[in-house]
Amino acid sequence: MSQNPPNLRPDLAPRATFSEAPRPGQPTIGMVSLGCPKALVDSERILTRLRAEGYAISPDYKGADAVIVNTCGFLDSAKAESLDAIGEALAENGRVIVTGCLGAEPEYITGAHPKVLAVTGPHQYEAVLDAVHGAVPPSPDPFIDLLPARNVSLTPRHYSYLKISEGCNHKCKFCIIPDMRGRLVSRPAHAVLREAEKLVEAGVRELLVISQDTSAYGVDRKHDVAPWKGGEVRAHITDLAREMGKLGAWVRLHYVYPYPHVRDLIPLMAEGLVLPYLDIPFQHAHPDTLRRMARPAAAAKTLDEIAAWRAACPDITLRSTFIVGYPGETEAEFQTLLDWLDEAQLDRVGCFQYENVAGARSNDLPDHVPAEVKQDRWDRFMEKAQAISEAKLAAKVGRTLQVIVDEVDGDGATCRTMADAPEIDGNLFIDEGFETLAPGDIVTVKVDEAGEYDLWGRLVG
Fold this sequence. Notes:
The protein has helices at residues 37-52, 76-92, 106-112, 125-135, 177-181, 189-201, 237-244, 266-271, 287-293, 299-312, 331-344, 371-394; strands at 28-33, 56-58, 66-71, 96-100, 118-119, 159-163, 165-166, 185-186, 206-210, 225-228, 231-234, 250-253, 277-279, 317-324, 348-353, 400-409, 412-417, 428-430, 442-450, 455-459. By secondary structure, the chain is of the alpha/beta class. [4Fe-4S] cluster 2 binds at residues 168, 172, 175. Pfam families: Radical_SAM, TRAM_2, UPF0004.
């Protein structure tokens, strides 16, 4: 068991896991999936198609006939990580197909690695399949290679990411995701709900709803209506969340912008249909900084919204990410952010130091903050966030909570409460009486001890 580190990057998805062994002679494709959960879902879709065509999936480079590297282009540091992964795959295997967000800059990739077989952009599934077919022709066995009952999953079997839309209509100056992934394109409501239903039928206990802007779901479709379960469902996040909440699994909402209609989700949380958890990218609190980011600048009104959410659902957990050291950020602006955090008392917080990203409009802003100042502000921000987290967790000692089991080993069970998303939040550890537990179990515990980010408890009942 391990404790949750305080500086975990909030843009990363869990590491992909594989369980199937290839049959003798079966063409095998390796997969390296980098970046956020949205990219992980893209990887799952690619592998599901390949698996249906008779390919085996390899968890590493060795023994694979070719390797797909699904890249991240969110920050320059993520781009460097992607280039390193491509280079490692070339060195270990030699036959590499690149896809994902960084694939939107093919010259950037081929300039560093001219020997890659192909480069495709984000969610270009057909192009990836064509590249695989060209490198490793399929050889399906019609008696063995049947379409699996469920999609290929790169996460543990008891939870799954569910992507409800692609793209984003925001024009934040520090972000190039809309340039890479395009404007908002929402999936039909009935298609999302059918996928959710199939996942739950296959044993998934927790659905993690993701997109680039979850609360904008359906705007591009003008919130059209689709048939569902003998009635109709509107392409709107409130309706979608309500219907998913009827499936019997935990439903966790990520990347929710604080539009006014978000308040309509809170009663669903109070009723228990949706987990009382909101992941909202506030990014900053000073109005001038937010304006330079080209983001809504009503931080004071946001505090009023937070108070209203907590009044309607006292157990709600609020998670957010912030950027420190944004161009032009003064010490006074940063202090406003610290004061805002003091008042907001967010439960879970991630933080980035600002980085230039090729193509971002923020690169051209004046008064860039020196690296040592960014590091100092990050340290001070995380120190305050850690103190808030520690106090909030200490208040849970003695409480009885439901938890979901993620992993069981010889030392104990690693679990999460309703307040914890996989990988990016904390854990609850059980180190006595855990022997009968298995991943995916949802059990009741009493909290005995709290740390800065994690809890310890014992089974009750």
